[in-house]
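The step that takes the researchers longest sounds almost clerical: writing a folded protein down as plain text. The outcome of that step, for a single protein, is printed below.
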Amino acid sequence: MLARRLGLILAALPVLAHAQVTSVPFGQNHDRSQPVEITSDRLDLDQAAGTAVFAGNVKVGQGELRLAADRVQVFYVAGTGDGAGQVQRMVANGNVTLSNGSEAAEAEQAVYEVVAGTVDMQGDVLLTQGRNALSSQKLHIDLDAGTAQVEGRVQTIFTPSTAAPGQSSGQTSGQSSGRTP
């Protein structure tokens, strides 16, 4: 038995050594066609550069996607043709939180490429999905594919379900807990 366990551990070493990139699902219901709404305490606009800097309690929403940060710089599509003036990219800094439904990620910085539908987060990244958590230094999210890749030193905490397979964790009506009220 010990030899079998040791063999499994040794067989897993090459996988563990290369486990620097981990893929997880994220943001499967994102709709890039939704308008982007931004609120903040302050706005500095530079029309010549095609940028806007939102500062202080910044909140960004697009459909179910939510982003919060201390500061967000927005880059607009330049030119006069179709799409001119639309949000192209957002760079968020300081206490960044990104959420989509029950999934949330925190980091020091995030770059949201609105046109491409991707988000790159870095600096003490923490990704939570329900009761499970994953931490790393970098997180790349493809909102269109509903996937995320975590890079750097990856640490995970998976919380197993307390219910037996096929059973719910709560009691159904008519069952007794064995305790009297």
In short: Residues 24 and 148 are 5 Å apart (CA to CA). Residues 2-17 form the longest helix (16 residues). The chain has one domain: 22-157.
